[in-house]
């Protein structure tokens, strides 16, 4: 049975690595359709990454080793996170390595290194982006933790695979607390992945950038890794959302290859729908001023804590 | 965890919705939207009352649901919209605290209310007793709305929202007040609304605005 589990683990990571640029491409395509533009190919993100890998890297003169290492560290943390999140199966050998709270820490590690690398060069835009990123991060983290606390309280554990299993197997009930935390989680997802109300991923205007501003000095394979990591981060957040709010379809417990195949199919279906939903949210909302971001994230925190309080009071 | 009956689940979801609407009213700065939110809160209350009436078979709850529908969903919002149009008060931006601060204070208020309601719901014997905490929270949040606003119009909306909370509390603790009390309260609210409507015009005539700051200083000081 051990080999099957490790095979599942390998499959989950490989699927995440392959699907991440595809998911991002799908979101971009839906967005283009909704905005009456001609949509780019779904494979455009892949092509961009491949093109970047074939180029020679130019590194700024004052860059320290931190600047060179950061893309590998960020990409590595995202791969580890993809190995922990029960996207395909809840029985993953890596799943026991870290619980949901450690997962939040893992994302924070990536963010800290990104910000440090952005400030390393000493350009104005890099430091500005880093500072904004830290502001968004420190406001989004409490909301994300609160969301995880509610799910943990309902299932009495902080291990993500176990939460997912218990939520999937319990009797289907109307749960206002999960609905509230679902809204909060969506808001955190938008903020953490530099999506529209907080940051515009397609912007070329340096003054409004957050995530893009930190990447300005990177080129070639470093940039490719960072863009791949960003796509992976979006996929990871979507998979955390599925594990907490739509756990049905993933393979539960001991599962053979047929169950895994259906689980992968279910994941693809969920990602397809989530991509459309994400594009819809982004099309319907306008980008907020940076100084309105605290209000947006305070609302997310409010939703999450309301979910917690309602769960404690009503037990639902 | 044992699953509750489906009707109770819906009732709990409606209670949670009531709480959420209270927060939305706390954050809302446009007076027109505020009144719409009040009407929505009334509609949720009406739905909860109807559901509870169907579950318990208490006839007077049907009556109070009808009263809620007529008064709080239809008549009072209509009256308020008319007042807004005639007075030209569309925004209430100048509040004591900023939105984020108000929301966080509101969260503390909810924690306090849930603690406060614990002994009450322990005494009650109804199936909906756990929702008493939400009713107390709605009352206190409406109170907070009244405290943080300056314009008379939003304070009146807060007052009506507070009445919604009281009504919901009575409903979930004891399956509603006696009919005669309910009628009396409805009449009180109606009369209060009509009197306040006249009052608005008087305030505006005296001070050229509906900002209640002006009422704090004595006439000689001005």
Fold blueprint:
The complex is a heterodimer of chains A (316) and B (222).
Chain A: H1 2-34, H2 44-53, H3 65-84, H4 100-120, H5 124-155, H6 160-169, H7 176-192, H8 211-215, H9 220-245, H10 257-284, H11 293-314
Helix pairs in contact in A: 1-3, 1-9, 1-10, 2-9, 3-4, 3-9, 4-5, 5-6, 5-7, 5-11, 6-9, 7-9, 7-11
Chain B: H1 6-27, H2 31-56, H3 59-87, H4 99-123, H5 132-148, H6 152-174, H7 179-207
What does this protein look like?
The complex is a heterodimer of chains A (316) and B (222). With 316 residues, chain A is an all-alpha fold. Chain A has helices at residues 2-34, 44-53, 65-84, 100-120, 124-155, 160-169, 176-192, 211-215, 220-245, 257-284, 293-314. Chain A has one domain (2-314). Chain A is 71% helix and 0% strand. Chain B is 77% helix and 0% strand. Chain B has helices at residues 6-27, 31-56, 59-87, 99-123, 132-148, 152-174, 179-207. The model of chain B has no long low-confidence stretch (mean pLDDT 85). The A-B interface holds A 170-171, 173-174, 176-177, 179-180, 294-295, 298-299, 302, 305-306, 309-310, 312-316 and B 1, 3-4, 6, 9-10, 12-13, 15-17, 19-20, 23, 27, 99-100, 103-104, 106-107, 110-111, 114, 130-131, 133-134.
Please give a quick description of this structure.
With 316 residues, chain A is mainly alpha-helical.
Radius of gyration of chain B: 18 Å
Biggest sheet overview of chain B: none
Q: What is the typical, i.e. mean, pLDDT of chain A?
A: 87
Mean pLDDT of chain B: 85
How many distinct helices of chain B? 7
* Main sheet overview of chain A: none
Shape estimate of chain A:
globular
- For the record, give the distance between the C-alpha atoms at the N and C termini of chain B, rounded to a whole number: 63 Å
Q: Briefly note the structural class of the backbone of chain B.
A: mainly alpha
- Order of SSEs of chain A, N→C? HHHHHHHHHHH
What is the count of distinct domains of chain A? 1
Assembly status: heterodimer
Give the uncertain stretches of chain A in residue-range form.
Answer: none
Structural class based on helices, strands and sheet pairing of chain A: mainly alpha
Tell me the β content of chain B: under 5%
Strand content of chain A: under 5%
The helix content of chain B, as a percent range, equals over 70%
Helix percentage of chain A: over 70%
Distance between the termini of chain A: 37 Å
Question: What would you report as the Rg of chain A, rounded to the nearest angstrom?
Answer: 19 Å
